[in-house]
Amino acid sequence: MTEGDRLWLVLICLCVVVAALAETGAVLLFGQLADNALQKGSVSAFWGPAAQWLGMAVFGALVGYAGNSAAVWVAERFVMRLRARVFGHVQALPPHFFQRHRQGDLVERLTGDVEAIEQMVVSGVVQTVSALFSTVFFFGAALFLRWDLALATFVLAPLFWLAARQFATRIKTAARQERVADGAITSVVEESLGNIVLTQAYNRQRDEEQRLSTEAGAWMRASVRGNRLSEMYEQLVEVMETVCVLAIIGLGAWEISAGRMTLGQLLSFAAFLGYLFPPIRQLGQLGLVVTAATAGAERLLEILAAKPAVTDPPGAGRPPHGIRGVVEFDRVSFRYPGPDGSSDEAVRAPGLDRAPGPGPSPDRAPYALRDVSFTARPGELILLTGPSGAGKSTVSKLLPRFYDPAAGDIRLDGIRLDALPLEFLRERVTLLPQETLVLHGTIRENIACGRPGGTATDDEIRRAARDAAAHDFIAALPDGYATHIAPGTAQLSGGQLQRIAIARALLRDSPVLVLDEPTAGLDAVAARQVIAPLRHLMHGRTTLLITHDLHVAPDADRILVLDGGRLVESGRHAELLARGGTYARLYGDGAGRRLAVP
Ligand SMILES: Nc1ncnc2c1ncn2[C@@H]1O[C@H](COP(=O)(O)OP(=O)(O)OP(=O)(O)O)[C@@H](O)[C@H]1O
């Protein structure tokens, strides 16, 4: 909370206090009016207190309006910042976090759960302060009028608190279940829409409906339970209020008959009670709103508790100029964080676990890389291949520092990656990931985002698209570079999207390039269309090409073969073929020969 926020809160409290005081004054005037004008039947005695009452009411209304408006503004701003903070945190979380959390549930946490908190903050802050002061003032005024009657009434007050307490835990459980079910429903809908082709092709419509209906059933049960509990609480409070009012009227009637109280006093007193109940009820209900919001807050806190796998080095000095792009893997071992999200400390804090010891450990994920060492120099094309699950993509995740190795070092121009500012490193290492990443926007924007800060000119964008062999098909589109594309867009083929991604990478102009299966899922012709511009992209850079498609292998300066996380072979194409090992087997298995058809 900033200094400015605190000032605003003080101002809001001041407004709320003044508004509550004005209301208290108005009720006291009501008693005077009843005794002087109503009981005596005097119209002339009416105008004075009536004008004062009206003045007080208008003043209270204006101050109350100002206070409430300011409070809503402060509260909404708080919620906006909260959402931005959680969203910002999510952006820095490692890839496995997103694989282990259903996307729909994360969406729900950032929307529905934030909304629950919003309700609490917006109504909570103003209402609590207002209810608190109103209770104090009204009770003070009631004490002033008749302290004995006021105390008699307040003996019953703890009953309200007791009732709220009784209900809070159960309502919280129901609220949490509802929030979880909300997340599950969003997930099912999102997954189902994303897989619509699979659903229709395999006639899975009914299974999908069943999945939704199961989650919707859980949501309905939780929602009905929550609402039933709230309603029960409301009704109970109403009955308790009636008991209080009846008790006061009974006591009042007795006091008036004994001549110890005027009718005006009794009316004022009853009015105070009428005014007193809503804030007391609000205070009780606030507990319930807070309870519901806590369920949302806990879910947000779960996200905030997830730690980024890597952080910027503390006090990193000025990054060096002119990175050439020498990449060194020095006895690198790595394993992904365990299934419960519990991370190898070494994964978070690089350099702690210097002893490799990559032996199997029953409660941790197996090592995805073990003792891998190699060096790649500028101008070199290094091809990384191996059977599925060998650890190839893992290498591509370590270079831009999505994770740090558990043991060993990765260096860029001799500097450990964890000693370089993250943003600086990622500007120097361009990753073309396995899945083609498309942003919601025009083709121009999709290419332009390759350049940090989006500073690319139209000419540069076109040149990059030309070099990526994408210009011709883009120009042929009715809207050309202004064509809107989005994730899952059907307008462009896989190969065309891949070439847009290559244009984006070209624009980045970084010394190190990591290409993860750039031709996956493409036929030989489309693959060639992608590879040709890639050669252009590779020129003069350090290029790590991860692929099963071995038809570029003869051009590679070196081929690294991974198997079971270990580097089992390294050398040129002809050398490795002659050796007759894993590489020769992979090449002979057909991938290389099939795709090498000229
Ligand atoms: N997020 C993850 N969490 C846990 N284990 C993972 C994760 N990603 C990959 N792995 C495991 O790490 C090992 C290496 O995976 P990697 O994706 O690097 O293999 P790959 O050689 O690229 O395979 P492919 O050729 O099939 O893409 C595999 O055993 C895989 O199951």
From TrEMBL:
Listed GO cellular component terms? plasma membrane
- Principal location: membrane
Q: Which residues span the membrane?
A: 7-30, 50-75, 120-143, 149-168, 236-254
A Pfam family annotated for this chain is ABC_tran
Gene Ontology MF term list: ABC-type oligopeptide transporter activity; ATP binding; ATP hydrolysis activity
Location of the ABC transporter domain: 347-589
Matching InterPro entries: AAA+_ATPase (IPR003593), ABC1_TM_dom (IPR011527), ABC1_TM_sf (IPR036640), ABC_transporter-like_ATP-bd (IPR003439), ABC_transporter-like_CS (IPR017871), P-loop_NTPase (IPR027417), Type_1_exporter (IPR039421)
Q: How does it sit in the membrane?
A: Multi-pass membrane protein
Q: Where in the cell is it found?
A: Cell inner membrane
Q: Where is the ABC transmembrane type-1 domain?
A: 10-292
Keyword annotations of the record: ATP-binding, Cell inner membrane, Cell membrane, Membrane, Nucleotide-binding, Transmembrane, Transmembrane helix, Transport
Q: Which domain of life is it from?
A: Bacteria
Annotated region (Disordered) at: 338-366
Family listed:
Belongs to the ABC transporter superfamily. Siderophore-Fe(3+) uptake transporter (SIUT) (TC 3.A.1.21) family.
What's the name of the protein? ABC transporter ATP-binding protein
Q: Which organism is it from?
A: Streptomyces armeniacus
